[in-house]
Each structure stands twice: as structure tokens, then as C-alpha cells.
Amino acid sequence: MTNMIGKPVKRVEDKRFISGKGRYTDDIVLPGMLHAHIIRSHYAHAKILGIDTDQAEKMEGVVAIFTGKDIAEAGINGVPCGWQVDFKNGETMKEPPHPLLVAAKARYMGDAVAVVIAESKALAKDAAEMVMVDYEPLDAIVDAAMAVEDGAPLVHEDIPGNMAFDWELGDREKTNQTMAKAHHTTTLEFVNQRLIPNAIEPRCAIGDYDSTNDKYTLYTSSQNPHLIRLLMCAFVLGIPEHKVRVVSPDVGGGFGSKIFHYTEEALMTWCSKQLGKPIKWTAERSESFMTDCHGRDHVTKAQMGFDENGKIIGLRVKTFANLGAYLSTFAPCVPTYLHGTLLQGLYTTTAIHVDVTGVFTHTTPVDAYRGAGRPEATYLLERLIDKAALEMKVDPAALRFKNFIPPFDGINEPGFQTEVALQYDSGNYAPVLKRAMEMVDYEALREEQASGRNNGKLIGIGISTYIEACGIAPSAVVGSLGARAGLYESAQVRVQPTGKVSVYVGSHAHGQGHETTFAQIVADKFGIAMEDVEIVHGDSESVAFGMGTYGSRSLAVGGSAIMKGIEKVLEKGAKIAAHKLEASENDLEFAEGKWTVKGTDKSISFGDVALTAYVPHNYPEGLEPGMDFASFYDPANFTYPFGAHIAVVEVDKETGKVDLKRFIACDDVGNVINPMIVDGQIHGGVAQGIGQALFEGAIYDESGQLVNGSYMDYTMPRADDLPLFETDRTVTPCPHNPLGVKGAGEAGTIGSAPAVVNAVMDALAPFGIKDLEMPLTPEKVWNAIHNNQ
Amino acid sequence: MIPNKFDYQKATTVEEAIEYLVEYGDEAKLLAGGHSLLPAMKLRLNNPVKLVDINRIPGLKYIREENAMLCLGAATTHYDIESSELVKSKIPMLCQVAASIGDLQVRNMGTIGGSLAHADPAADWPAGMLATEAIIVIQGPEGTKNVPAKDFFMGLYTTALAENEIITEIRIPIPEGNIGTAYAKCVQPASRFALVGCATIISKNNGLCDRVKLAFTGVSVNAFCDEAVEHALTGHAPDVDNITIAAEKAAINVDVLSDHFASENYRRHLAKVYAKKALMEAANNL
């Protein structure tokens, strides 16, 4: 069907998801399958003096127990890091091994020490209780800024100061000179707290070695099965890639945490070969809390300088980024190239310098979590600008309008070159904030706030704008920045003989609705019904290659790859049509699912052309039969969605509880294929950002124990904590990809947290409170009020 | 999330259940709604060898009025209490307590007897039981006994219930005269248990409170009646000034819990705030 693009089509995958028919990794049961239970360190830092497996090995149903010693003796490498960020002085990034099971030392609470494999999950767990690990607990360090100090316990003995890298971007000298001239300087010191991703489906991996064919299959709940295969084959197990198939069936959420290559994937694959049987491991919820890579955890000091007219002239940032105990797949990239590069924001700041130190601590590894670096950058900018507005006694909206980069479409006007490496593709920033203010009725709300204050009501209005770099990423650019992989995407458009279409995509949905959005594009371009399009993903055996789904990239990069395939089909189809219609290709037009000779009623349908391609009895000379095109698309640039969010809160003076009254989001994600899916993405993202602002945060005690590793203790945002979101959009198309799309997966998370915090700070302004750290729990807010009354 | 091996046993009478308790001692556990027990078993924090299911015992689920008492069978679910017209007409606060527990699925399974026996320091029912001066009817091998709520809760997860005993009924005196009741709860945001829960019943005679009962849960290791608040309001008109003065006395002479949701200081403050909320609401319901 034509005109499918832009329609709020209901998600085709939801039928199976909401009726319990989704097929997740843990649903897979293979003949003779064994079950693994992983024994994990209870200590954040401990020497392993010995492991006694005697009793457990004798238990009925126990098949094998492997320890770190076995892994070391087998010569297996640890899981690799996929991004290299070196020290400023040229020294190479410190990249300690991350073994599948540790032999000598545990470095965070949850570090894997041994694996018990048994005939059932229950037996494996029972036996694990009988494995005696003799630990010698050691002092731990959990805070990134403290970990670099002299005398701090070392996470890896050979890495002094616990530093993985230090890094800078921007012009230090120019920034220092500019900041020295500033008429007003605002300073903010804060922790962007550690978050636990909490995908509803726990991670799961099944290793299945087939000795007759010497082939391995790994089933894993992952956002990018192909990358897992590449990393595991080439860097961990040293097995040929063509001997390994990686399958990720339906994936129940990830938020970034399922991008990375985890030790359990390689461990199950290796163990399966040792025992000759398939082996499944599924994380328990407590394991998910402890071992799914966490997000954020920045300790930052930032200063913003203004001239006498309120124009931002300089920004100086120092961040200690907590990387946890080991380097996860993308960990070094998040606080650097996804954070430092976004510090221009939407503003015309002329001098920026950012300095980031990546630090090891005795905590769960930290990596990309929805937004990844960009929420941290946005929080930094938007809190600074709000604090500055308060200090300079100007309206926070007016201060933003004054500093916005003027509009540019990236076609007639060039892209905007930032002070921090990126070139924005297209942008028109004032309208999103204007629209958001209109939606919330800003002027009236300010009046309501003023009269409320007179009656003791603490109403707050908080604004945040944001920009993010999505559509990750141009391979040459990221390669020059330390990426060890390209970040293109692949798609294969296979027109079947009957005119039905199968599209094999390298991105992999874990909640995004690709089966719907991608099918809409194909149906629209071919003029066929959506039901006649099938989207295939998540299996390295059927999909040629892929870089997976993260960084709001699937539509901008993967969708563009599909568009390339579509073009190739239409190009070949036109040749066949011209032959059949006995006309020149130039005289044909394609519309409504058929090629027509212009100005005549002579036409041939898409289906007939497809059939001809596969039954080429009457066929253009020299043309190959078939209709099947693989394409790779490497983007020319990142895409740069932006938006403005406004939160309205009321703070209860007596208890400190924040009541979120309204939340307005006006986003610009470029062109929109399915507005319902985009709205859903924004809603989910906003909820997660609100979660960070008000509720969430991993808490480690000094010994490195994760204090709140359960749903009884870790506060997730719930529906009844949230108001009905009010959303709208402006559209500034991306100038460099065929669909003009920018990506919508992370926008909500990036904009919402600072809007909520700004709103609470606005409510508390009468008490002279200028800054509080997330999450803004009732006690924290009450204490601040109490201490300032 | 897999419990240790256990033996599941369905009991058909209270006597049969007690026999298992006698035989297995501390290796047996009664299964009522299971909403605290099963998670504890899955985390292997509680590892009973014998799990005795009492859900099929007839005659443990009822709500009726007898001799000026509200009588609740121990296996009555939170939802049954929440939605009982009888309870609502006699002591509406109890419906509030029930309705504040977990979510609908939890309330459809969880039972009042199970909650009392478990005695979670943050559970809602203990406050309601203390404020209403409920009597917990307990059956053991030697027969039945009646334990007043104030003697029942003895510490963290600790009650007057012996290893071989089972709660069969809760009897709640129906207050007479001009009464107002309320339950005010500040939820722990992750678990939605009570960070501070305050249950109160006041009665008014000639414009003055002649009787005030006020109990807290979540504040200390076990629920307790706050006599300082009760005394401060008794004999005074239940107006905002007197209630404010009385509420200020809340949780003064008790050891207050502290955790990452609420420090001792903040929790004590919340106790005052929620005492006032509860008393104000009760006064409005007079």
C-alpha cells in the first residue's frame, strides 16, 4: 500500500507479545539440555584462596563444575573491549583481562567464580550451595573520584591510580582564557548517579555444540547477535566465525544493557563443547541487578561562563567516569565520545573544554544505558543554565532563547560545526521550546506559581532542551575516535517469486517495533500490503551481517540500508517491466504497486515483475534472474534529534515528596514513519528519565556491597508516579539519509531528567536551595527545606 | 529463584495442621497467601522442609459480627476485608488498611492471619490491630488462647505465636459512640510497604475525645501503640491545634528504624506528619 509512511499503524508484533506467544531465549528447550548456575563473589574485592568442589561434584545430577582455574588452563581470553580511548600523553588505554571466571581475585560483588552444570536448574543451584569458596576479603573502592587518590585500593594491581584512560576534547587554553573574562560564572558539582537498567527479561544464554559438524550455536538475549559472534569467535574462544551461529529470538527489553558481549555467552559456548550437550543459563533477578552493566555514574565539576549580555561564552568540564571493575564492550566511548562531544548543546558557546578520567572501581561494569553519555551531557548543560538563570535573576526560557544556535537545514545552510568535534546535520531549535511553552501555558503557569507561593504552595516549572547524536555512526569517523568496529548497517531485500517480500535486517528489536516500522517503509515504497512484508532479524545464519540496535540507530542507519535495497529492486524491476511492456525505461513510472507506461493504460504489477524475475522465459538480455539485494549503508554523519521538555511539580513541604503534575515533551526526531511508535518511544524514555530524576540509583556501601539490588529496595518509576504525558513534534528532516529520519529511542530519557530536577529546584528557590543531586527523594528534599527554613 | 527442596502437605483441618507443626517443629511452615513466605523461600532465606498448606481448611475465611465483635477468619484475604460492607460500616479504617496493601493480585491472595504471623515491621495490619485492640485467637496442641494485639507483636518478625500454633481468628471489638477512624500511610516507594503507617480510632463525647487509640507500623522493629500521642489528645477537643500538639509527641520514646529510604530523624518526622494526617482524617470522620 502506498502512503504507509507516517501512519500510526498498530504494532504487528504486539499480538504475540501481549498474548504470551513471544519466544524468548529462556523459552528454548533443547534435547538433553543441561542447566548452569554461576557462583558469584559476595565480596566486592577478595582473594580467592581456594575452591572446594568435592561435595558438590558427588551430588546426583551434577555433571560438571568449572572454576577460574579451568578457564585459565584452557587458555581462554577474557571478553574484549570494543573501543579504545588512550591517555592524553599517548599511553595506551589500560585494558585488564575480564576472564569468563576469575581464578585469583574477585573484583566486584557478582564477579563469576565458578559454574555448576547439572541436569536441572534446581540441582545446579543446590550443588552450588555445596561449593565452598575460601575468600580473603580486601578493602574496596566504589567512588570514581576517590579511586584515583593516593592509597586507594587498586582494582587491578598493575593499573596505578585505577585509571583506564584520561581524555580531553576542545580547546583548553582558549576556554581558560574565555572563562577568565566571563562576566558571570556558574559552577555545578554533581554526581550523575549510577542506574541499573532492569530489562524485564533477564539475560539468558544457551550454548549448543554440535560435534558431528563441529558447529556451535549460541542463543542469547542480545541487542546485536552478529557483534557477539564476532567478538566471541575472534577475541575470546578463537573459533572460526563460520562455525558459529548466534541467535537472538524475541528480546524483552535491553535499554543498552544487552548490547555488550558478556562472559556468560562465551562460557556457555565453551562449556557446551566440553560436555557435548546444550547448556542454558538464565540470570535470576538478583543476578540481573548485580551483573547487567550499569549506566551513568559520573562525578563532575562544570563551569559555565557568560558575558554581560547573558551569552554563554565558555564551558569547562571535569568528569570522573566510573567504569566498574572491568571494561565492558563500549564503556570507554560513553563518557568520552558520547558525552564530551555533546557539550555544545543547542547553544552558541564559543569555547568548550572537557576532561574525562575513566576509572576502575570495585563495582559492576558500567556501559551504555539508554541515552549513554548524552543524558549526562544534557543534565550538565541544562542544570548549569538553570542555575545561572537563578543567579543572574533572568527567566530560564529567555536565557535559552538568547543562546540558541540559529536555524540551519544542512542543505541550503551548512551544518553547524561545534567546538567539540561534531557537525550538527540540521536544526531549528527555538520552535520546540516555543511550542512546549505554549502547550504548558508558560506565562499563566508562572502567575499560578507566584500566587501559589503566597499561599505556601511550592510549585516548580522546569525546562530542559537537548540535542543528541544518534544514527550511530559513520564508520570512518568513529574509527578515528577509537572504535574497533564499523557502525554501518546491513539489509537484504528479497522479493519472493510471488511478489511477497522478506527483508533481513542487521538491527535487532528489543521493544522498538521494527517489524512494523520497517514493513511500513517497504509496503509504501513497493505499493504492496504490509502483510506481504516479512522482517527477519536476530539470527546470524539468516541475516548477512549487522551491528545491532542501540544509539537510536536502527531506522536512521538500518532503515537507510533497507532503502538502498528498495532502490535496487525498483531499478531492476524497471528493466524487467520495460522489457515486458516493450517500452523504454525512461517512459515508465512506478506508482501504486505497478509500472505504467506514461500516458497510457499499459502497466505491469510489482508481483508480475517479481514472477518474471524468477521465471525468466521472456526476459531482458544479459540481466541476471532473481530479485534479491543485499545492501550496506554507512551514514555520512550522525543524526541530531533535539527537543524541549517542561516539567511542572509541586513539592510537599511537610514530607519533601515531589508530585509531578504535568510533563510536556516537544521533540524533533526528523521525519516520522510511525507516529504511534515514536510516541511510545518518547513516553518510555520520559518515564525512565523521570525514574532517574526522582527514584532510581544504585547504592553501594563502603565495602562494595550493592545495598539495593532488588525490587523491594530499588525504586523503579511506576505508572501511578507519572502524569499523562503531553507530547508534540516539530519536523526538521535529516538532510543526509534517504528517509530524513533522526531516531527517537533515547530522546525522552535525555530531556526529561533535567526538566524534572529544574522544576524541583525552581519550587525550592524561595528557600535559597540551588542544587540537589538525583534522585530527589522525599528525605533529600525535606532535609534541604528543613535546613534552609 | 528456586527454593530448596520441600515437602508440600495440604491440611484439611486446623488440628491436622497443628499435628504437622508438632511433628516437624521449626522445619515446618504454614502456607497461607504465601506472599512473604514464597519469595523468602525462593531467595533461600527460609527453607522449610514441610510446607503445610492451610488454604483448603474450611471455615477459616469469614467476616461476621458476634457479641459486639468483628470476627475475621485468619485466612480471610485482604481484598475480602477491603470490600466488606460490614467492616466498612463498623470500622472503616480496617478497609483502608486492607486497601493499602500491595496491589490487587497481592490482596486477592494475601491473608490477614498470614500477615500477622509474619509480623513484618513494615506490614500494615499490625497498626490496625493495635489501634482497634484486636484479639488474636491462637490454637495449639493444648487448645485455644486469646492474645491481645498489644502482647502479640514482640519484635522484628517475632510474635507471641509458638512454633506449634496457628492463628485461627481475629476478634475486633466494635467501638461504640461517636467514633472516627483512619489509616494514613507513607509508602516505601520500591516495595510499597509502609515507611510509616498510622492507624487511629478516636471517640468524641461532649465535644472532647474520651478515647484515643493510635498505632504505628514501619517506624520501629514492631508495630506499637503510641501512648504519648493518645494521652496528649485524650480529654481535648479533636481540633487542628490539639491534634497538632498531640502529633508532635509521636515516636519520641521509641527506637526508630533507619534505612536508605528514611533515616531515623526523617522517619520520626514522618511519624508526626502521618499521626496528624490520621488524626485529622479521623476527626473529620466523627
From TrEMBL, chain A:
Keyword Cell membrane: no
UniProtKB keywords: Molybdenum, Oxidoreductase
Aldehyde oxidase/xanthine dehydrogenase a/b hammerhead domain ranges (all copies): 19-139
Gene3D superfamilies the UniProt entry points to: Aldehyde oxidase/xanthine dehydrogenase, a/b hammerhead, Aldehyde oxidase/xanthine dehydrogenase, molybdopterin binding domain
Pfam families noted in UniProt: Ald_Xan_dh_C, MoCoBD_1, MoCoBD_2
Top-level lineage group: Bacteria
Kinase keyword on record: no
Name by which UniProt lists this protein: Xanthine dehydrogenase family protein molybdopterin-binding subunit
From TrEMBL, chain B:
Keyword Oxidoreductase set for record: yes
Highest taxon above the source species: Bacteria
Any matching Pfam family: FAD_binding_5
Keyword presence, Oxidoreductase: yes
Alphabetized UniProt keyword annotations: FAD, Flavoprotein, Oxidoreductase
Sequence ranges assigned to domain FAD-binding PCMH-type in this UniProt record: 1-177
SUPFAM superfamilies: CO dehydrogenase flavoprotein C-terminal domain-like, FAD-binding/transporter-associated domain-like
InterPro entries registered for this protein in UniProt: CO_DH_flav_C (IPR005107), CO_DH_flav_C_dom_sf (IPR036683), Diverse_Substr_Oxidored (IPR051312), FAD-bd_PCMH (IPR016166), FAD-bd_PCMH-like_sf (IPR036318), FAD-bd_PCMH_sub1 (IPR016167), FAD-bd_PCMH_sub2 (IPR016169), Mopterin_DH_FAD-bd (IPR002346)
PANTHER family recorded: XANTHINE DEHYDROGENASE SUBUNIT C-RELATED (PTHR42659)
Descriptive protein name: Xanthine dehydrogenase family protein subunit M
Species whose genome carries this gene: Agaribacillus aureus
